[in-house]
């Protein structure tokens, strides 16, 4: 039922992007892409088919896209926007196929990425009953501290996705402060490194407020990724960076269309 509805929505979006995509197309645009789990699964918004995923990564490599981590973007901002053909891949939620499937494929094509982890979902941190965990991953294994250190050793970046993966805009100031601070502290203490990148759980325009942004900045993060879908531009707020979502329903064709901005003209569908 969910899959059928998602397919219908995807077909409508594809039709709109094909018709109006020329209006927003910009093949030199710099873009952050969001993926979640790469595995065969029933929820196409959470799971990306591994074969399709590899096709997309191969396309980036064959077309000589540079890949940057979020911290690379921040350290070179805004001059990085003058560089040619680059993309930043991000993987949210910390499912363990990041280590079994995603990293080997990225390594095959020399692509670097950023993994945003909700710390309560890390294997050793899990204290909630299964039903209260991210529902789409209830039957998946979540990532472990050892997996995360292997990801770091492979040259990728780890960022925070909050501690408990809740919509921060709906929580009290106190809760948000504790959640984002605890997540940072756990990642830094266990991985022995500074964690400066954050991705808002859910990430659409209703997932954060001016106050959320301020608290996250005060906690010591220097960038935050949203799920507002468009390319990066001069003048962007580094604490409200746009990202374009790639789902399990994307083919190589729609992946390229999203990369080139054809879907930006219908971003009002995504951003709310
Ligand atoms: Zn998430």
Spell the H/E element sequence. Answer: HEEEHEHEHEHEHEHEEHH
Low-confidence stretches: none
Structural class: alpha/beta
| CATH A-level architecture | Alpha-Beta Barrel
End-to-end distance: 22 Å
> What characteristic shape results from the CA principal axes?
globular
Number of helices: 9
Ligand set: zinc ion
- Rg over CA atoms: 17 Å
Mean pLDDT over the full residue set: 89
CATH class: Alpha Beta
DSSP strand tally: 10
How much strand? Answer: 5-15%
Briefly note the CATH topology name: TIM Barrel
Whole-number total of structural domains: 1
Helical residue percent band? 25-40%
Biggest sheet features: 6 strands, parallel
Summarize this, please?
The chain has 9 helices and 10 strands. With 272 residues, the chain is α/β, with parallel strands linked by helices.
Question: How would you explain this protein's 3D organization?
Answer:
With 272 residues, the chain is of the alpha/beta class. It has one domain (28-260): Alpha-Beta Barrel (TIM Barrel). Helices cover 36% and strands 13% of the residues. It has nine helices and ten strands. Strands 1, 4, 5, 6, 7 and 10 form a six-stranded parallel sheet that branches. Strands 2-3 form a two-stranded parallel sheet. Strand 8 (197-199), helix 7 and strand 9 form a beta-alpha-beta unit. Helix 6 (173-191) runs parallel beside helix 7 (210-218). The model has no long low-confidence stretch (mean pLDDT 89). The protein binds zinc ion.
């Amino acid at each position: 039922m969910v899959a059928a509805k998602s397919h219908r929505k995807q077909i409508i979006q594809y039709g709109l992007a094909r018709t109006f995509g020329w209006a927003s197309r910009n093949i030199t645009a710099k873009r952050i892409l969001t993926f979640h789990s790469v595995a065969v699964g029933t929820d196409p918004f959470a799971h990306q088919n591994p074969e399709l995923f590899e096709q997309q990564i191969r396309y980036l490599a064959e077309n000589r896209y540079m890949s940057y981590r979020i911290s690379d973007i921040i350290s070179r901002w805004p001059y990085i926007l003058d560089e040619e053909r680059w993309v930043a891949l991000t993987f949210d939620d910390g499912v363990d196929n990041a280590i079994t499937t995603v990293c080997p494929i990225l390594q095959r094509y020399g692509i670097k990425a950023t993994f945003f982890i909700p710390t309560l979902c890390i294997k050793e941190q899990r204290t909630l009953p299964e039903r209260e965990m991210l529902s789409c991953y209830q039957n998946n294994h979540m990532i472990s501290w050892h997996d995360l250190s292997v990801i770091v050793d492979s040259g990728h970046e780890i960022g925070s996705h909050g501690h408990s993966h809740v919509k921060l805009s709906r929580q009290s100031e106190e809760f948000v402060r504790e959640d984002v601070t605890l997540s940072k502290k756990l990642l830094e203490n266990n991985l022995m490194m500074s964690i400066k990148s954050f991705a808002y759980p859910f990430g659409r325009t209703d997932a954060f407020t001016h106050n959320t942004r301020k608290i996250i900045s005060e906690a010591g993060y220097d960038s935050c990724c949203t799920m507002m879908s468009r390319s990066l531009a001069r003048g962007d707020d580094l604490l409200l960076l746009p990202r374009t979502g790639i789902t399990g329903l994307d083919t190589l064709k729609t992946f390229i269309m999203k990369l080139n901005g054809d879907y930006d003209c219908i971003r009002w569908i995504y951003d709310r």
